[in-house]
Amino acid sequence: MKFVFKLGMKNLLRYKERTFLTCLSLAVGVCILLFFSGMLEWADEASIRNLKKYEMASLKIGNIEFFEEENYIPVEKVVKEREKIEKILNGKGLAFTPEIKFKASLINEVTGDSYPFFGMGIEAESHKKVYDLHEMVYEGNLPEKGNEIMIGKNTVELLNVKVGDFLIVETDTKTGAHNADAFKVTALFETPNPEVNKNFFYISIDAANNLLDMGGDINLISVKTEQKAEKLSQELKKEIVVDEMTVKTWQEQAQDYLDLSQGKKGGSSMMLMMVFIIITVGIVNTMNMAVFERTGEIGMMRAMGMTNREIILNFIFEAGGLGFIGGVLGLILGAVVTWYLIRYGWDMSNYVGDISYGYRVSAVFRSKWDFGMMATALIFTTVSSSVISIFPARRALKRSISETLKSAGKFG
């Protein structure tokens, strides 16, 4: 066994060019595999974090009909018995913030340009305890009073405005009447969540109350928790016994995104499988060629007394060595690429622009260490190479010694 192993390793050095090219192709395949795997893992993890930090909190409390028709934002479906609910949340020591969410158009009063947005009426101090939006404000502060509006960097470019300019906010009130008012741009933000950057603007909860004629009502309460959102949701549903009111976790609110994410994972898995297939095809071609070129050598080894098992093991060790070396080189290349993406990222803004690609991440793509995939890739290249080498070797051994020795001259 020791002799057969040494022979297999010597063959790796004996055919240097083929060994180099095979290992290089395997390394590139493994590197590509780790590149996509790490980036997709990062995108999914970052999306969930950005959903909770800037868009949906851990969970929201609101009217059942509001959640059922949330795409239409029925502002008239308000939070009932707000004081009772807030008392329960305070009793549990939870951070929460009241909100008024509504649909509106923002109009540049100079050019007349108009675009649809989601408006958020917020209470600045409590909002900071639930969301991280205030940390992403790069000019001004969260709106606290009067007709002040905070918009995203994308909106600045879309409507061609700056701090100090005025925008008209046009919307329908709680009673269905049409209303509009001028708001001064006092703050700008840019979050890692592109959906928030592109689709939301913020005004004070008092200004939203006046604009929509809410009569002091709100339509959402956002809650932050460090415990599992599902568990807290069940507890609150038992304690908040108010007609028409319900509690929605971020997972329930983001079901469309999670379904999309699962679909993307399925597509990504197919893509990763294709990479595995490409790697496998490379190994198959290499080992078929190796056995074909050394048919005469196989005959000589058999004539000298080597058993079929020893010859097959020789090819297994040789192919396993190719797969292992190629896998290790691929891990090194993949680790370098992953480190670069984690530290510096890959700015895709010139390619994706304003396109919404589903993930709640910015256009600067990063990666994540995926040690499970690294181990899988190394094991796969080593084991698959070893297993694949058995079939061409067994096919060659089916021929008689005299037939295979006819090719021995080329090895003399």
What would you say this structure looks like, in words?
This protein is an alpha+beta fold. It has 2 domains: 2-52 and 257-411, no CATH class; 59-224, no CATH class. It contains 16 helices and 12 strands. The chain has helices spanning 2-14, 16-56, 64-68, 82-91, 124-130, 153-159, 194-199, 205-212, 229-239, 250-253, 255-293, 295-303, 308-343, 349-352, 371-397, 401-405; strands spanning 59-63, 95-108, 114-122, 137-139, 148-152, 166-172, 178-189, 200-204, 220-224, 245-249, 346-347, 364-365. A 6-stranded mixed beta barrel has the order 2-3-8-5-7-6, surrounded by 4 helices. Strand 2 (95-108) and strand 3 form a beta hairpin. Helix 2 packs antiparallel against helix 15 (371-397) and helix 13 (308-343) runs antiparallel to helix 15 (371-397). It is elongated. The mean pLDDT is 84.
Layout of SSEs?
Elements: H1 2-14, H2 16-56, E1 59-63, H3 64-68, H4 82-91, E2 95-108, E3 114-122, H5 124-130, E4 137-139, E5 148-152, H6 153-159, E6 166-172, E7 178-189, H7 194-199, E8 200-204, H8 205-212, E9 220-224, H9 229-239, E10 245-249, H10 250-253, H11 255-293, H12 295-303, H13 308-343, E11 346-347, H14 349-352, E12 364-365, H15 371-397, H16 401-405
Parallel strand pairs: 3-8, 5-7
Antiparallel strand pairs: 1-9, 1-10, 2-3, 2-6, 2-9, 4-7, 5-8, 6-7, 11-12
Helix pairs in contact: 1-13, 2-11, 2-13, 2-15, 11-15, 13-15
